Amino acid sequence: MRRIALLFLLALALGGGALAFAQGYGGGSATRGGGFDLFAFFEGSSASRGTITTALVRREAFTATFEGRRQGDGFRLEERFAFEDGGRLQVWTLAQAGQAVSGTVETELETGEMSEPATVSGMSGEDGVVLSYEGYAPGGGGLLLHFRHHMRAMGDGTVLNRVVVSKFGLPLATSSVIFARQAAALPSLSRGR
Question: Domain residues for 158?
């Protein structure tokens, strides 16, 4: 019984922390009115720097480079991650109709194989772009997870992305990522973003 109560309290603590993080109260400086054109920002080359915190215990830094191009009415974005244990690829194929964003994402798994395309849905508005999907972690195994990305334009020309990764509604990991058109423009994550 003690274990069940402890697990319940741990789930509540993790859930509350991730909810605050997802709502932008996790120490970030993003402001409302941060809408931006997702496809225009990622067209051509761009880069990111971020951290992922797993279960509030393990924190890992990573970088990524991007190549985006318009394809007819849609957009294709190749995201190449660099983690401590190696590189991973994610391929996004997206379209936008009004404020609705839809498409797929394929992720390189631990085997080096690409996952089946996961359906992505989202919205673009004054508070940025939110994308959600059930998919796989880059370099992960076959565990299907829920991902929620909330991207907001910052005043310095970068974009802040807050990500919550969950399973059965319980948050397992959070990530804070800064995107920039050029790698040299990426600020340090220690600036309190």
Answer: 2-183
15-to-55, 56, 81, 107, 172 alpha-carbon distances in Å: 10, 11, 27, 26, 9
Tell me if 117 is assigned to some domain. yes
- CA distances for 68 relative to 41, 44, 56, 90, 160, angstroms: 9, 5, 32, 12, 18
pTM of the model: 0.80
Residue 4, classed as helix, strand or coil, is helix
What residues contact residue 108 under an 8 Å CB cut-off, 6+ apart? 88, 89, 90, 114, 115, 138, 139
Domain total in the chain: 1
pLDDT in tens, 125-180: 998 999 999 999 999 998 999 999 999 999 899 999 999 999 999 999 999 999 99
